[in-house]
Amino acid sequence: MQREKLPTIKEIAKRLKVSTSTVSRALHNHPSIGYTTTMRVHKIAQEIGYEPNKTAILFKQRKTFTIGVLLPNLSEDFFSAAISGIEDFAATKNYNVLLGQSLDDPEREKRILETMKTHRVDGMIVSISKNTDNYEHFEQLKKYHIPIVFFDRIPEKEAINYVACNLESGMLQALNLLIEQGHTRIGLITGPEQLIASAQRREIYIKGLQEKNIQLDEKLIVSSGLSKEENHKATKKLLSAKKRPTAIITFNDYVALDAIAEAKKLGLTINKDVCFVSFANLPIWEYMDSRPIASIEQFPYKQGEKATEILFSVLEGDDSMDEETETPENQVIFDSEMRLHF
Amino acid sequence: MQREKLPTIKEIAKRLKVSTSTVSRALHNHPSIGYTTTMRVHKIAQEIGYEPNKTAILFKQRKTFTIGVLLPNLSEDFFSAAISGIEDFAATKNYNVLLGQSLDDPEREKRILETMKTHRVDGMIVSISKNTDNYEHFEQLKKYHIPIVFFDRIPEKEAINYVACNLESGMLQALNLLIEQGHTRIGLITGPEQLIASAQRREIYIKGLQEKNIQLDEKLIVSSGLSKEENHKATKKLLSAKKRPTAIITFNDYVALDAIAEAKKLGLTINKDVCFVSFANLPIWEYMDSRPIASIEQFPYKQGEKATEILFSVLEGDDSMDEETETPENQVIFDSEMRLHF
DNA sequence: TTGTACGCGTTATCAT
DNA sequence: ATGATAACGCGTACAA
């Protein structure tokens, strides 16, 4: 079971007939150790291929120099971009990234959190699963002094650190664009009712229309469970109405893909009979002819990076008052931006 | 610097006025400990929220229950699928996944390997960077008894564990399909010369044509540095020749995207004037009208999963003879398969 | 059935 | 300038 022994400072000490403390200090170039001794230690260390045993150090220091990242999945472009941001930032601090995908399964999420906890990660960055409705397991971590920074999919709680993206700015830009282009019947495909993100989109949509004095038509708002079938259904519902919308804002890019496919199937020409605006920004859009006229960019890389930055500021801050680390600076909201595709 | 102290078995021992060993055994439900004692220990442990300190255990056991994963990037769909396979399998063994992206930068690759080593991961799964030409840093790990399983992008060495995908089966299927459909002038866009993958594709291409008695035209083989510009250039070179090919096999999906865009720009109709076959299989193809007629599927998820399985078989195997763990079973090659898109 | 003592590799503290 | 020793938290061989 036990793995082979690797060279330790003891070994070096024995060979040089000095004490382990001398070796330890020499290796850290402590000024109190004589030049020659220091040199000899380094030389032997080199020769026998000594590497400090981090597990021992971590154990002693009660730190792991590892941050846990828990997110729904890596297949979505959004999250793989986010983790790049996280990893890049963590690398600058010589931290490692322990990865877990919840796959939007609350049970899996809980299990992963559990292993992260027992592995004593120094902190966590979390984007919660779609179906999570209780946050007890996150509270748990607080007891163990493991700070969490949530990003993008954040729980509805007060005292948390988070990074998110404000959809309003981008969505209003998009609405204005559509209205300027003469669209008056603008549809909205939101996600499942229980998702905050769905409610948000709906509210901003309504607000935006009001600002421009456009009469709200409840029939132009439909929701989808986000499966392919439901996306198709939602689109069909919108587009086969008597007074069909000439533009549709979709919950995200994956919905947009299905919606565009469905619109084509219904014989409509994209960007002529009907055009789309979508949240997030698949890098692949530029290769597609039938694409939304605009995306609402939510900066996944930037979000990941910022979340990590916040996590480190908490980690490096006073541990003494770690009950209340959630200051305004630890709650960051980026503004989304509309990006034109044509 | 030091983090707050968490409950330990000492604490429990003190409260119950028993020895730490009793507590330790009770927590493991050791049969030698009396029922009441065991119960009392569990109760207190529960109350004060005791969690075994894994870092201490790992330190003692010289194991970390963590595998390191080093791959070029997570933006490519191929790798994010692969890591899902890895993570899923690792989870079944209660192992964690430490992640590192080389971004195809050999220096970064080296650094990541270094941190993985000092963090004493139990094993590694690696897909090497595009530009790596020396494998010393991998040899290093062997000294520290950290087994490596390579996948997909594997070094040209004998004694290694690996999982890869044999392109031949899929590519021959694709060639045959094209030939059956009447294509005789079939172009090939390979990658940079120094990549093994490029040579492979070239060889199989030539072999496939020979088998069907089709005269090889060297002009139909071009290589690209895989940047967007080079992809466009390579495509242009093929398609603007006097006797242009009616079908093109591209190095991968990203090349295909650029090639298709370029073909359109040249006024050609995809799948009529010219059609494409590509390696890998972007899930998004189905949403695109202008897509390759077929993909050569390389099963990233399966590769990741299998690589992890092999890693565990090595980890669980005899440590005694760890010089030569590379047995035939540890060198797995999947057959690629052609998948039609229409 | 329970307790004592030791070791894992390192560093910090207190001597010398 | 260097050495001896304790401590981090846990598991376990050996004693009682």
Automatic annotation (TrEMBL), chains A, B:
Stretches assigned to the HTH lacI-type domain: 7-61
PROSITE patterns assigned to the protein according to its UniProt record, in alphabetical order: HTH_LACI_2 (PS50932)
CDD domains: HTH_LacI (cd01392), PBP1_LacI_sugar_binding-like (cd06267)
Keywords of the record: DNA-binding, Transcription, Transcription regulation
GO molecular function: DNA-binding transcription factor activity; transcription cis-regulatory region binding
Family matches, as Gene3D superfamilies: 3.40.50.2300, lambda repressor-like DNA-binding domains
Highest taxon, organism lineage: Bacteria
Record-linked InterPro entries: HTH_LacI (IPR000843), Lambda_DNA-bd_dom_sf (IPR010982), Peripla_BP_I (IPR028082), SBP_2_dom (IPR025997)
Protein name: Transcriptional regulator
UniProt source species: Solitalea canadensis (strain ATCC 29591 / DSM 3403 / JCM 21819 / LMG 8368 / NBRC 15130 / NCIMB 12057 / USAM 9D) (Flexibacter canadensis)
